[in-house]
Design brief:
The structure holds 3 protein chains of 3 kinds. Chain A has a single domain, classed as P-loop containing nucleotide triphosphate hydrolases (Rossmann fold, 3-Layer(aba) Sandwich). Chain A contains 12 helices and 10 strands. In chain A, helix 6 crosses helix 8 and helix 8 runs parallel beside helix 9. Chain A is globular. The radius of gyration of chain B is 21 Å and the shape is globular. Chain B starts with a strand and ends with a helix. Chain B has a domain of 87 residues. By secondary structure, chain B is of the alpha/beta class. Chain C is 62% helix and 6% strand. Chain C has a two-stranded antiparallel ribbon with strand order 1-6. A two-stranded antiparallel sheet of chain C has the order 2-5. In chain C, a hairpin with a 6-residue loop joins strand 3 and strand 4. In chain C, helix 2 packs across helix 8 and helix 8 runs parallel beside helix 12. The chains are: A alpha/beta, B alpha/beta, C mainly alpha. Chains in contact: A-B, A-C. Chains A and C meet through helix 3 and helix 5 of A and helix 13 and helix 14 of C.
C-alpha cells in the first residue's frame, strides 16, 4: 500500500510551513506555552505524522494549522505564501485547501443535522450551491461509494445512527467531496475498533492517491505513525525534539525522548523491558 | 497442576434494558485461573469484556442480572450471593477490581491514607490508624511508590501515580484475584508501563495470586499475561497461551484481530493490515448460528444455522468454529 | 423529537406539574366563556361578603311560586340559627350572676323557659363585674335577636298604597312557606365572596391569573431572550466582547434585582405603570442567570469537534450559533424559560404587594389582589377568601412550574435519572 502510494504521488514543493509558531494559554503565573517556537516545512504529497503524548501540544498545533486557533507568535505559510485568514471569506478559501478528520466520530457530527446536510455543505463549499439536485445527488452517491457506503441507505438518517467506523468513513466521504490539498487527521483511528482501523487507513491512502492531497496525522500512537507515514515529527512539551523519515526516527532514534517513547511501547517481537521505569 | 483460584462455569449474565429487553452480554463463559497464572481477555468495544469482569465477581447490580452458571473463588461457591454481600465480603478481600477510570475514584477532598483507612476498616473495624499507616507505608515501599503519597490529596498526583495508588490501595488486603479492566488505557505509554510493572510486581511478590487482565490492546496483553482469551459478541471464541493466540490464531476472528496489530517494529510497514467488514451482531437478537458468520471470510451456509461449542485442540487450546483446525490453517496459507 | 416528548411525558414529576398547570390554564380559558361578568365590577354594597349563594329576597317573595313543606325540625333549626349553645350558656351565666337565680333552676335546653326567664330578668343597664363593653353589646344584640323567635304565626308583607300611603297587607308568609331556588330569577353564587371593593373574588381571581400568567410569559420571554443572546454571543465570541458582557452581567448580579425592580418601577411613575410595562421591566432585571448559564454551556460547546467541523465547512457565526450550538442547549433554555416565567409571576406579586406593581383599574393581577386585601386588612378581619385563594394559586403555579422543570431536568440530564 505504502510503496504504491509513493510512486503515484510524487513528493514536491513545500505546501505548508511554519516559522516560530507559538501558542501561549493564559498569562502571568498561569501561563502555559502549549507550542513553543516550532519550525516545520511539509512537502506536497508526503505523508506526515506528528507524534506526541497528551499535553505535548500536538492538538494545539493542529488547530493553529487549521486556522481554528490564532497563533500567539509566528507565521504559517501556505503554498509558499503567508497565510491570510483575516476575514470570513478568506477563511472559507483557506478551508477549501485544508480540512480535518477528528478523533471521536461520535462528537464530530452535529446530532441535529442529517447526513445529507453534512454532505451538501461540502458541495456548497466547493461552489456547487446552484447545481441541480440530481447532480448533487450523483456527487454524494459517488463519495459514499468511495468509502463503501450506500447513499440510499444513508439519506434522511442521522450520523449517530451509524457505527463508529461508518461515521469515520462518512468523514472520509466528506473529504472526498471537498478535495482539499491538505488533510489533518487528528487520531483518526484511536476511537474505533482495530478491525475497522485498516479499512479507514486504506481509504485515507486511496483518497490521497485519488485527489493528490497531503495527509498530516496527529497521533499518540508511534506504531501508527511508523506504519502510515513518510516523515515523522516527535513532539514533546511544545517543541519538535526529533524529525526525519519514518525509518530513521523509529528504527534509529537519536533523541532520548524518542528512545524512551519507543522503549515504553509494548511490542510483539522485541522484549518489553520493564526494568527501565 | 497447581491450585485453581477462580473457576467460572458456563456463566451467563444479561442486561435488562428500560424497555424490558434482555441482552445477553456474557454468554456461557467458562474459565479457570490457577495460582500464579494470569489470563488476558481481548476483544473490541461492545464484545462484553467489561461486563464479564463484573460478572466474574458476582457483582450484579441493575441493569446487570445473573442468568445461569457458577462462580467458585478459591473453593468457595459464590453463585447466587447477594450483590451487597459480594461487595462487603468478596470485593477487596477475595477479588479486587480496577476499572479504567479507577483513578477518578479517589475523593479529591481526602488524603490518600483516609481512602486506605476506609478500605481496611470496612473489613476490619478494629484496626488502628497507626497500624493501617504502617501497613500502607510498607506496602507502598514494596511496590516502589513513595510513602509521602499517603499524605497527599489526589489532585496533587499525576494520572499514572493516581492509578498506581488506587491499585496499591485496592490490593491492600492481599486479595486472591485481581481483575484489571483497561487499567492503563487512559494513560501515556510511560505511565502505562509503570502501572503494568506494578501489576506484574503484585504477582511476583505474592500479594495477589492470579490476574485477569482485560484490554483491547493486543500488544500490551501479549506482554502481560500467560494466556489469552478472545471474546466476540459475548462469547469466548478462542483460548490459548499468549504466544499461540497472537502468532498462531485458529479462529477466523482472532486471525483477523491479530492481523490488525500495529507496533513500531522493523518490517511492519510492508505488512498489509487485515480489515473485517461489517459490524458485530446486535445482542438483543443474536444470530442462531455462529455469531461471527456474517463477517467471516470462510463462512459456509451451515455456519448461519449451527452454533458450535468450544472445541479442544488437545494441546490445551480451544476455539469456537465449525471448520476443523487443519482446514482453517490451510485456508490461511492459501490466503497469504 | 417524538421519542423525546414521549420520555418527557413519562416523567412523573413533569406530568404532575403539567397537569396542575393545565388545569389552571384551562380554568382561565374556559371560565370567561361560561361566566360573563365583568371581573372588576363592584357588585356588593358593603365589603367582604362571605362566600355563599345569594338569593334575592324580593324575588323570592313576589316573583316565585311558593310551596308548603311540613318539616319536623324546621322550627328547631330556625331557633338554633339565632340561639346556639354558646348563646344559651352566656344567657345562663348572666342570669346566675346578674339576676342571682339559682343555677340548677335554669335549663339551657328548654328554649321557651329560658327566653321567658331572660325577658323578665335581663336589664341592659346592669353592669356585671368584669364585663366589657363588647360583652354588654353582645347581650343587647342577643336580646334583639330573640324577638319573635318563638312566634308561630307567619310574617305579613305589606305594601304602601300609592294614593293614601297606608300600608295594605299583601301576603302572609307562613313559616312553612318555601320557594324553589331554581325559580328565583336572581340568585348569585359567590363561591369566594366579595372583596374590599365589593367585587366577586372568583371572577376577579380568574382574570388575575390570566393577567399574571401573561406578565410571567412576557417577563420570562424577555429575560430568556436577552439572556440567551448575551450568553451565546459572550460565550462563543469570547475575548473582549465576553469581558464586556460579563462586566455588565456582574453588575446586574451584585445589585439584587428586587432593588432594581423597585427603583425602576418607582421611577416610571404611576400613570405609565401598566401590566405590560411591569412585565418588560421584570424581564429586563432577571436575565442575568440565564445569560451566565447559557454562556457556560456555550463555552463548553464551542471547542467541540462538531463546531470545528461546521467552521471548516465554511458556515457563518450566525449559522453556527443557530444550528450547532442552540439545538444543544435548547432543552436547557426551555428549563430556564419555565423558571423565569414562574419567577416573573412571583416578582410581579412582590412588587404589587409593595404597591409598585401595575397601576391599573381595568385589570387585576395576583399581586394587586394581595395588595388590596392587605390594605383593607383582610387578614386581620379574618376575611380569608380575599387573600388565601390568591396565595394558593401563586403557590400552585410556582409549584407546578418547578415540578415541570425538575421533571425536564431528569429527562435531559441522565445523571439525575434514577
Amino acid at each position: 500500500m505504502k510503496a504504491k502510494g509513493k510512486e503515484e504521488t510524487a513528493v514536491g514543493a513545500e505546501i505548508l510551513s511554519g516559522k516560530g509558531l507559538t501558542r501561549v494559554f493564559g498569562f502571568g503565573p498561569n501561563k502555559t506555552v502549549a507550542v513553543d517556537h516550532v519550525d516545520f516545512s511539509f512537502k506536497k504529497g508526503e505523508i506526515i505524522s506528528i507524534v506526541g503524548e497528551s499535553g505535548s501540544g500536538k492538538t494545539t498545533l493542529a488547530k493553529m494549522l487549521l486556522g481554528l486557533l490564532k497563533p500567539t507568535e509566528g507565521e504559517i505559510y501556505f503554498a509558499g505564501e503567508l497565510r491570510d485568514i483575516s476575514s470570513h471569506k478568506k477563511k472559507r478559501q483557506y478551508w477549501q485547501n485544508i480540512q480535518a478528520i477528528f478523533q471521536d466520530p461520535f462528537s464530530s457530527y452535529n446530532i441535529f443535522r442529517k447526513i445529507d446536510a453534512v454532505l451538501l455543505d461540502c458541495i456548497r463549499m466547493r461552489g456547487g450551491r446552484r447545481l441541480p439536485y440530481d447532480q448533487k445527488r450523483a456527487m454524494m452517491e459517488e463519495a459514499c461509494s468511495f468509502v463503501n457506503l450506500k447513499f440510499d441507505e444513508l439519506t434522511n438518517k442521522y450520523p449517530f445512527e451509524l457505527s463508529g467506523g461508518q461515521q469515520q468513513r462518512l468523514m472520509i466521504a466528506r473529504i472526498f467531496l471537498l478535495k482539499p490539498k491538505i488533510l489533518l487527521a487528528d487520531e483518526p483511528t484511536s476511537m474505533i475498533d482495530a478491525c475497522s482501523r485498516a479499512t479507514i487507513l486504506d481509504m485515507l491512502m486511496n483518497l490521497r492517491d485519488e485527489i493528490g492531497m497531503t495527509p498530516i496525522f496527529i497521533t499518540h500512537d508511534i506504531g501508527l505513525a511508523y506504519y502510515v507515514s513518510d516523515t515523522v515529527y516527535i513532539m514533546e512539551h511544545g517543541v519538535f525534539v526529533e524529525s526525519g523519515s519514518a525509518d530513521d526516527v523509529i528504527l534509529n532514534p537519536q533523541e532520548p525522548y524518542t528512545q524512551r517513547l519507543l522503549n515504553d511501547v509494548p511490542k510483539l517481537h522485541e522484549e518489553w523491558d520493564l526494568s527501565t521505569v | 497442576m497447581s491450585k485453581v483460584i477462580l473457576e467460572v462455569n458456563e456463566l451467563t449474565t444479561k442486561y435488562i434494558t428500560r424497555f424490558r429487553e434482555d441482552i445477553y452480554a456474557v454468554d456461557h463463559v467458562s474459565l479457570k485461573v490457577e495460582d500464579g497464572k494470569s489470563i488476558g481477555i481481548a476483544g473490541e468495544s461492545g464484545c462484553g469484556k467489561s461486563t464479564l469482569a463484573l460478572s466474574l465477581m458476582g457483582y450484579y447490580f441493575p441493569p446487570l442480572h445473573y442468568s445461569s452458571g457458577e462462580i467458585i473463588v478459591d473453593g468457595r461457591n459464590i453463585t447466587g450471593m447477594n450483590p451487597d454481600n459480594v461487595r462487603k465480603t468478596i470485593l477487596g478481600n477475595e477479588i479486587s477490581y480496577i476499572p479504567q477510570a479507577a483513578m477518578n475514584a479517589l475523593n479529591p477532598t481526602q488524603k490518600v491514607i483516609r481512602f486506605i483507612e476506609d478500605v481496611i476498616q470496612a473489613h476490619n473495624p478494629r484496626v488502628t490508624r497507626q497500624e493501617i499507616y504502617e501497613l500502607a507505608r510498607e506496602r507502598f515501599e514494596l511496590l516502589g511508590l513513595p510513602a509521602d503519597v499517603l499524605q497527599k490529596y489526589s489532585v496533587e498526583l499525576s494520572g499514572g501515580m493516581k492509578q498506581r495508588t488506587v491499585i496499591a490501595t485496592s490490593v491492600i488486603l492481599s486479595p486472591k484475584v485481581l481483575i484489571a479492566d483497561e487499567p492503563s488505557s487512559a494513560l501515556d505509554v510511560t505511565s502505562q508501563k509503570m502501572v503494568i510493572k506494578m501489576i506484574l510486581d503484585l504477582m511476583e511478590k505474592g500479594i495477589i495470586k492470579s490476574l485477569i487482565f482485560i484490554t483491547h490492546e493486543l500488544p500490551l496483553l501479549y506482554n502481560v499475561t500467560d494466556d489469552i482469551m478472545v471474546m466476540y459478541a459475548g462469547q469466548i471464541v478462542e483460548r490459548g497461551s499468549a504466544d499461540e493466540v497472537v502468532f498462531d490464531p485458529i479462529h477466523p476472528y482472532s486471525k483477523a484481530l491479530m492481523g490488525s496489530i500495529i507496533v513500531p517494529e522493523a518490517g511492519l510497514r510492508d505488512v498489509k493490515l487485515t480489515a473485517i467488514p461489517g459490524t458485530p451482531p446486535n445482542l438483543k437478537n443474536p444470530p442462531a448460528g455462529c455469531r461471527f458468520a456474517a463477517r467471516c471470510k470462510f463462512a459456509m451456509p451451515e455456519c448461519q444455522a449451527i452454533s458450535v461449542n468450544l472445541r479442544d485442540t488437545g494441546g490445551g487450546r480451544t476455539y469456537r468454529c465449525i471448520i476443523p483446525e487443519e482446514d482453517l490453517r490451510k485456508a490461511y496459507e492459501n490466503e497469504s | 423529537m417524538k421519542h423525546l416528548l414521549g420520555q418527557i411525558f413519562r416523567s412523573g414529576k413533569f406530568l404532575f406539574g403539567f397537569v396542575i398547570f393545565m388545569i389552571i390554564m384551562l380554568t382561565v380559558l374556559i371560565y370567561p366563556l361560561l361566566v360573563e361578568y365583568p371581573p372588576l365590577k363592584t357588585i356588593s354594597r358593603g365589603t367582604f361578603l362571605p362566600p355563599g349563594i345569594y338569593v334575592n329576597v324580593y324575588d323570592s317573595m313576589t316573583f316565585s311560586e311558593s310551596y308548603t313543606l311540613i318539616l319536623d325540625n324546621a322550627a328547631t333549626k330556625r331557633i338554633a340559627s339565632k340561639l346556639n349553645a354558646e348563646d344559651r350558656q352566656a344567657m345562663k351565666e348572666w342570669l346566675v350572676i346578674g339576676a342571682e337565680l339559682p343555677e340548677d333552676e335554669i335549663d339551657v335546653d328548654d328554649t321557651a323557659k329560658l327566653i321567658d326567664l331572660w325577658t323578665t330578668n335581663f336589664d341592659p343597664t346592669v353592669r356585671l363585674p368584669g364585663m366589657t363593653n363588647a360583652d354588654r353589646n353582645y347581650y343587647i344584640r342577643l336580646t334583639a335577636s330573640l324577638d319573635g323567635l318563638l312566634a308561630t304565626e307567619g310574617a305579613t308583607v305589606a305594601v304602601a298604597n300609592e294614593d293614601t300611603g297606608v300600608l295594605e297587607e299583601k301576603y302572609v308568609i307562613d313559616q312553612t312557606t318555601y320557594v324553589n331556588v331554581g325559580e328565583v330569577p336572581n340568585v348569585r353564587v359567590l363561591p369566594l365572596g366579595t372583596d374590599n371593593f365589593g367585587r366577586d373574588v372568583l371572577t376577579e381571581l380568574i382574570k388575575a391569573i390570566s393577567v399574571s400568567l401573561t406578565i410571567g410569559f412576557v417577563a420570562g420571554t424577555v429575560a430568556t431572550t436577552i439572556g440567551l443572546i448575551l450568553g451565546l454571543v459572550s460565550g462563543y465570541i469570547g475575548g473582549i466582547v465576553d469581558d464586556l458582557i460579563m462586566f455588565i452581567t456582574n453588575l446586574f448580579t451584585v445589585i439584587p434585582s428586587i432593588i432594581l425592580l423597585i427603583l425602576i418601577s418607582f421611577s416610571i411613575g404611576q400613570e405609565k405603570r401598566g401590566a405590560f410595562t411591569i412585565a418588560v421591566v421584570i424581564g429586563f432585571t432577571s436575565w442575568v442567570w440565564t445569560a451566565r448559564a447559557v454562556r457556560a454551556q456555550v463555552i463548553s460547546l464551542r471547542n467541540r469537534d462538531h463546531v470545528n467541523l461546521s467552521k471548516l465547512s465554511g458556515h457563518s457565526i450566525i449559522h453556527i450559533l443557530a444550528m450547532d450550538i442552540l439545538p444543544y442547549i435548547a432543552s436547557y433554555v426551555v428549563m430556564a424559560l419555565i423558571l423565569q416565567i414562574s419567577s416573573g409571576i412571583l416578582a410581579e406579586a412582590g412588587l404589587s404587594i409593595l404597591g409598585l406593581g401595575p397601576r391599573t383599574t381595568e385589570v387585576p393581577t395576583l399581586g394587586l389582589m394581595l395588595n388590596w386585601a392587605l390594605i383593607y386588612q383582610a387578614p386581620l378581619l379574618g376575611k380569608w377568601w380575599a387573600y388565601f385563594p390568591v396565595i394558593l394559586i401563586i403557590a400552585l403555579i410556582a409549584f407546578s412550574m418547578n415540578l415541570m422543570n425538575t421533571g425536564l431536568d431528569q429527562v435531559f440530564n441522565p445523571a439525575l435519572r434514577d
